[in-house]
Write a structure and sequence with these properties.
The chain is an alpha/beta fold. Helix content is 31%, strand content 16%. It binds 1,3,4-trihydroxy-5-OXO-cyclohexanecarboxylic acid.
């Protein structure tokens, strides 16, 4: 009689698929008071709280991180390898300028979803180019704070 073998488990020791890193880029710490006509009145704390409650519904864990510094964002993305199953990122102005953030996204080989509060394609020309758009799994733009929630729903399908 053939020996029964256990089905291969998708859950390995220390596997962190259900953990999602949320990265907020420069100036997003000022949300709520910064250019409210463009970015709305939700603060970063409001957005993180809404993400936490959606994460509970989707049965994923979140860690939210904000930095105004390109190098710190690169280091944080690098540190996600092996610790998180995916990354939700609003790289803010670095979206349009940072080869280093793009390279970090490529280096970690994790599903990444890019979000923006505003519709970057309806704004100044320099915002139309995202250096992340072709290396991320998907992009959500223009829905205000809901862009993050829609992005999290999409990313949760991938982790
Ligand atoms: C932003 C759009 C960027 O162009 C801008 O630099 C930001 C915020 C957004 O969420 O709409 O800081 O990423």
């Amino acid at each position: 009689m053939a020996k029964k073998t256990a089905a291969p488990s998708t859950v390995q020791a220390g596997y962190t698929a259900a953990r999602i890193l949320v990265v907020h880029g420069p100036n997003l710490n000022l949300l709520g008071s910064r250019e409210t006509d463009t970015y709305g009145v939700s603060t970063l704390e409001d957005i993180n709280a809404a993400l936490e409650s959606l994460a509970a519904e989707l049965a994923v864990d979140l860690e939210a991180y904000q930095s105004n510094s390109e190098g710190e964002i690169v280091s944080k993305i690098q540190s996600a390898r092996g610790r998180f199953g995916g990354i939700l990122i609003n790289a803010a102005a670095y979206t349009h300028t940072s080869v280093a953030v793009r390279d970090a996204v490529l280096a970690v080989s994790l599903p990444v979803v890019e979000v923006h509060l505003s519709n970057i394609y309806k704004r100044e020309d320099f915002r139309h180019r995202s250096l992340l758009s072709d290396v991320v799994a998907g992009q959500v733009v223009g829905f205000g704070a809901s862009s993050y929630l829609l992005g999290l729903r999409g990313l949760a399908e991938l982790v």
